[in-house]
């Protein structure tokens, strides 16, 4: 089971005591934003090595995402917030998650210094990396560095080839490109699952309920990447684990003159009370852009058609 370390700790490995002996491990390291099929190939290879050696699979990741620190003007949208990334890493076999605060000290560490610090806590028996691997100041520690370092340190390194989709190397950036185009099928193939948002259901303005379409207003992080505004076929998974078909909107509700971007989800069945629950929203397919209607009745009629379209999509969607 993954255990997330305190983000304020310089280095913290789950709940392992600070004076504990280094943990025998198979190590993977990266941002893992999206935990896409390229990441999954690395994790699958690492899980296989960890099991064959009888050691723990440990993932090292950074918080916040280094790119948001190095290039804050970029406004990088994250495919997965930390909690969702933690869940996905656990699903793909990670035993321990080591969260390193990406700060000024880390920025100045050489690759050798970084690995030395890692090995104070981890007895690294093997390491699994992808072709874009890099660590240390200025990302100087690339594949040739870790291979040379591992040979001297006495552990093995396994290289996993990049995963391609339709001739394009799968990466977090490639997923963002497709997401920005509302290409949800392409995003789903590169992620190996639907695009998802994890957030708490909070109180909204009750406009959907007034129109006969009650919605769950799902709070999302400002750092969260989202597809363009519009109406989408969705699925909503609540704390009971039940997956519910839904139709939802992303945007500022132009019909009501809204200004704040929101994620609102209307379940096709009656899920009962939702407020305060943690909801996982899967965004499956775009139905239409946002629109402004002549009156509320025109909006209601369109929402009825949207719900029917969502139900038809879900009825024919492969499991």
Please, could you describe this protein's structure?
The chain is an alpha/beta fold. 32% of the residues lie in helices and 26% in strands. Helix 7 packs antiparallel against helix 8 (184-191). 33% of the residues are buried. It folds into two domains: 23-165, HUPs (Rossmann fold, 3-Layer(aba) Sandwich); 194-316, Elongation Factor Tu (Ef-tu), domain 3. It has a six-stranded antiparallel barrel with strand order 8-9-12-11-10-13. The chain has a five-stranded parallel β-sheet with strand order 3-2-1-4-5, sandwiched between helices. The protein has a two-stranded antiparallel sheet with strand order 6-7.
How would you summarize the topology of this molecule?
Elements: E1 23-29, H1 37-53, E2 56-63, H2 66-70, H3 82-91, E3 96-101, H4 104-108, H5 111-121, E4 122-129, H6 143-153, E5 156-159, E6 164-165, E7 168-169, H7 172-180, H8 184-191, E8 195-202, H9 207-210, E9 216-218, E10 230-237, E11 243-251, E12 262-267, E13 278-288, H10 296-316
Parallel strand pairs: 1-2, 1-4, 2-3, 4-5
Antiparallel strand pairs: 6-7, 8-9, 8-13, 9-12, 10-11, 10-13, 11-12
Helix pairs in contact: 7-8
């Amino acid at each position: 089971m993954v255990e997330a370390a305190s983000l304020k700790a310089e280095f913290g490995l789950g709940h392992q005591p600070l004076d504990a002996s280094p943990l025998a491990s198979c190590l993977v390291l990266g941002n893992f934003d999206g935990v896409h099929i390229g990441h999954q190939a690395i994790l699958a290879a690492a899980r296989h090595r960890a099991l064959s050696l009888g050691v723990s699979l440990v993932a090292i990741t950074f918080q916040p995402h280094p790119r948001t620190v190095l290039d804050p003007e970029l406004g990088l949208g994250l495919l997965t917030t930390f909690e969702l990334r933690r869940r996905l890493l656990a699903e793909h076999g990670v035993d321990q998650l080591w969260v390193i605060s990406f700060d000024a000290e880390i920025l100045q560490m050489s690759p050798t210094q970084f690995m030395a610090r890692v090995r104070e806590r981890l007895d690294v028996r093997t390491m699994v990396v992808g072709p874009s691997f890099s660590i240390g100041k200025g990302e100087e520690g690339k594949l040739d560095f870790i291979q040379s370092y591992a040979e001297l340190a006495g552990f093995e390194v396994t290289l996993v080839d990049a995963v391609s989709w339709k001739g394009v190397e799968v990466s977090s950036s490639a997923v963002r490109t497709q997401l920005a185009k509302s290409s949800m099928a392409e995003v789903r193939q590169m992620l190996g699952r639907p695009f998802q948002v994890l957030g708490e259901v909070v109180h909204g303005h009750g406009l959907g309920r007034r129109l006969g379409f009650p919605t769950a207003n799902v709070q999302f992080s400002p750092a969260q990447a989202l597809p363009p505004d519009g109406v989408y076929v969705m699925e909503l998974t609540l704390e009971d684990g039940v997956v519910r078909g839904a139709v939802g909107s992303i945007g500022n509700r132009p019909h009501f003159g809204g200004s704040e971007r929101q994620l609102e989800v209307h379940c096709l069945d009656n899920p009962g009370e939702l407020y305060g629950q943690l909801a996982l929203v899967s965004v499956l397919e775009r139905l239409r852009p946002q629109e402004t209607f002549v009156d509320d009745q025109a909006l209601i009629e369109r929402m009825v058609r949207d719900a029917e379209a969502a139900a038809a999509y879900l009825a024919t969607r492969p499991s």
